[in-house]
Amino acid sequence: MIPLNKAVTENAGEALENDSSFRPLPSNGICTRLGDKWTVQILWQLSIVSGRRLRFSALNRHIDGITQRMLTMTLRNLERDGLVVRHYYPEIPPRVEYELTELGSGILVALENLNLWLRTNMHYIDECRRAYDKAAV
């Protein structure tokens, strides 16, 4: 069983209800984008090379299983949302590099907190899944 402090949970819920600044997440597609299979992996890869840019081929090489088409589509969406900037160099052959924008770097703080929460609570989630699957049989 998950050890939850009921008083803390109830107080947090009351605080959110009484907080006039609290708003549910907007359905503007950003949450959907962050929840897809590839976006976070691309953002992580671009964050590893802080201050540098990555070429398309380097991203493709470092993200297992992503197709060129999916990488292209995801990068375009990230560029559209302002999280990534594309640098085009009209050389022969043409060179394209990608880097995180300030906005893109900012989302990494939230993702790092989510990652910490997942690592802290994954054993509870696994326990709940096992209990649910056992009861469903």
Automatic annotation (TrEMBL):
Domain HTH hxlR-type: 25-126
Keywords: DNA-binding, Transcription, Transcription regulation
One term of GO molecular function: DNA binding
This protein's record includes keyword DNA-binding: yes
InterPro entries found in the cross-reference section: HTH_HxlR (IPR002577), WH-like_DNA-bd_sf (IPR036388), WH_DNA-bd_sf (IPR036390)
PROSITE patterns for the chain: HTH_HXLR (PS51118)
One Pfam family cited in the UniProt record for this chain: HxlR
PANTHER family per UniProt: TRANSCRIPTIONAL REGULATOR, MARR FAMILY, TRANSCRIPTIONAL REGULATORY PROTEIN
Protein name (database record): HxlR family transcriptional regulator
Native species: Biostraticola tofi
Lineage per the UniProt record: Bacteria, Pseudomonadati, Pseudomonadota, Gammaproteobacteria, Enterobacterales
